[in-house]
Amino acid sequence: MVIPMARWTALMGTTPCARALANEALSEQIREVFVASDATYGMPRVRAELTETGVVASRKRIARLMRDGGMRGVSRRRGYVVTTERNKRQRPAPDLVNRQFVASDINELWVADMTYIPTWAGFIYLAVVLDVYSRKVVGWAFGEHMMADLVVAALNMALHTRKPGSVIHHSDQGSPIHQPGLWQPLRISCFSLVRPSNNVPARYFWQPLRISCFSLE
């Protein structure tokens, strides 16, 4: 079969070029998600983030582009632990911060988060409450199990040591403190699940810990 030169040029030139441009654009989107996660997300979580924003790509394609771009997620030897799980029966609290992590004084805005630390003996779970203005940990608690008690204990420490008059407590939708009337000094605020860029202060706080405690894939 004889293929006209124009057709041959189109097949060998235009199509691969378009594919390369598409891969380049996808690589940039992958890198944005990867960087936003403090270089901790592997292919599955990167793909979940992209899918949520309407970007559809196969697992193999994303894995290849991440490998070609030198993007290697953080993992532990015995699997992955989810530290945020939304209560689907619970009405979400409003987002009073809207990613504007700015405070003019102490005890004006607190952010809360939880992470896990892999050790040879298993996991240690750490919950913290950070004061955005002072950038200090005002409450913390750790334990061997990821339980609501850790979040409550960290918050109780913050309330006991700081004794705020009125403070915004900003956390994820999985926090167990979202019970109306239970925490009088607090104005409860929540961000949506999955977005690592939503809780910027906590993300910067965890970064040195992740670097020192986690091993790269």
Would you mind describing this structure in some detail?
By secondary structure, the protein is of the alpha/beta class. Helix content is 37%, strand content 21%. The protein contains 5 helices and 7 strands. The strands form 2 sheets. A 5-stranded mixed sheet has the order 4-3-2-5-6. Strands 1-7 form a two-stranded antiparallel ribbon. A hairpin with a 2-residue loop joins strand 2 and strand 3 (122-131). The chain starts with a helix and ends with a strand. The relative contact order is 0.14. The model is unreliable at 76-86 (pLDDT under 50). Pfam families: HTH_21 (PF13276), rve (PF00665). Residues 90-175 form the Integrase catalytic domain. InterPro entries: HTH-like_dom, Integrase_cat-core, RNaseH-like_sf, RNaseH_sf, Transpos_IS3, Transposase_IS3/IS150/IS904.
List the defining traits of the structure above.
elongated, Nucleotidyltransferase, domain 5, 2 domains, 217 residues, 5-stranded mixed beta sheet, 37% helix, 7 strands
Q: Percentage of helical residues?
A: 25-40%
Gyration radius over CA: 22 Å
CATH class group of the largest domain: Alpha Beta
CATH-assigned homologous superfamily of the largest domain: Ribonuclease H-like superfamily/Ribonuclease H
How many helix segments? 5
Secondary structure class reads: alpha/beta
CATH-defined fold name of the largest domain: Nucleotidyltransferase, domain 5
Report the average pLDDT across residues. 73
As residue ranges, the low-confidence spans are 76-86
Largest sheet geometry: 5 strands, mixed
Q: Largest beta sheet: what is the strand line-up? A: 4-3-2-5-6
Strand count: 7
CATH architecture of the largest domain: 2-Layer Sandwich
Count of the separate structural domains: 2
Q: How much of the sequence is in beta strands?
A: 15-25%
Distance between the termini: 49 Å
Q: What overall form do the CA principal axes indicate? A: elongated
Strand/helix succession = HHHEEEEHEEHE
